[in-house]
Structures are given as structure tokens and as C-alpha cells.
Amino acid sequence: QEQLDQSVILMLDCGRRMRALDGDLSQFDHCLNSMLLLSYIALRQGDQVGILSFGGTDRWLPPVKGGHAMTTILNHLYDYETSPFPSDFSEAAERLLRHQRRRSMVVVMTNLRGEDSEELREPLRKLRQKHIVVLASLRESGIDAMIERDVVSFDDALGYLAAQDYSAERERVLATLDADGIVTIDETAQKFPVALANRYLDTRQNI
Model's pTM, two decimal places? Predict the structure, then answer.
């Protein structure tokens, strides 16, 4: 029987990078919906769920569990919003380490950028010394669409090359994080909730 009463901490990026629209919703809203699904599943598994936000909305919900935990999470998240400010991953990691000393699964939810390599790597490595760390990155569906569409004009070719370069940078960052022992997810909004839930179930036994 798997151990119950483990802790899952969801770190939500509320900075300006999460304001971009993906379909009818912002990337931030897609992440919120995925968080609610993951919280529900984790609570059903007997785990505790805590939330730390950063990037302008800086809050902390200590891990909760039990019959009213989902209501507590909903009440905590209902007025979350993005900010026009950049996200400080180092400060967020330090806050998490101060708040959560017990070994946990920490899920960092953001939109990974190729230039994030150094800014993101050290904070995640620091978290990895204490916790199981999952980087859950929401990939823009528009990038995939640019790569997959037919190239029939010079502008199409420029867009295709830019999208390929953008994707290659992301893949290099993900490969570096994988080598550091960080579990990674990189999915579009349509696949993100299920991918996140499955990765949680696959990873929780290592907490």
C-alpha cells in the first residue's frame, strides 16, 4: 500500500509571461484549471496540497487535506490574477524552502522560455536538494501550429524558422533540467491537465 499523507506543493507563476492568450483563455487560467484537477486527484490519493504563488501575487497556503480541503483551495485561488511584473524564481524557491521543510513533491507551473536556462536552473537545483521537483511548462499551441503549417511564402518560412529556433531553445533547457534530476512536462493547453495528473501519479511514489 502506498504511503498516504504525503505533501504536494503547487508553485504557480503569476508573472507577466502567463498573460498570453492560448485559445479563449490565458495561459494562467489554463494552469489554474490544471491545478484544480491535480489538487482533486492528490486529495483523493490521501495527499496534502499546498500552494505558493509568485510573480506579483505572492501567497502561501500551507498543505491541507481532508473533506473540506478542496473548498479551502478554491477559496484560496478564486481571486488570483496575473501581474505585469517579471517572475523571480530564486526568491520563490527561497520562500518555499522556508515554508515547507518536509520532503514534498514541488510542482512549478510556468511558461518556460529559452532564455530561462540560468535564471531557472539554480533555484530548481536548490529545491531538488530537499524535494522532488517537477517543472510543468505550458507550451504555446501557436508555436506548434507555425511548425506544422505549410510553407508557401517567404513570411511563412521566416515564421517556421523562428518557431523552430524557439522550440530548440526550450528543448535545450528541458534537457539540462532533466540532467539535473528535475522531472519535466512540456505540453500545450489541450494536453496539459492530463499530462500533469499522469506525471503526478508516476512521481508520487518517490516522495
Answer: 0.88
DSSP reduced 3-state for 114: helix
Q: Which residues contact 51 (CB under 8 A, 6 or more apart)?
A: 9, 10, 11, 12, 35, 59, 60, 61, 73, 76, 77
Residues sharing a CB contact under 8 Å with residue 178, sequence separation 6 or more, in sequence order: 184
CB atoms within 10 A of CB 12: 25
pLDDT digits (tens, 9 = 90+) for 58-76: 999 999 998 899 999 999 9
CA-wise closest residue to 51 among 104, 88, 2: 104
Separation of alpha carbons 106 and 129, rounded Å: 12
Confidence of residue 20 (pLDDT cuts 50, 70, 90): confident
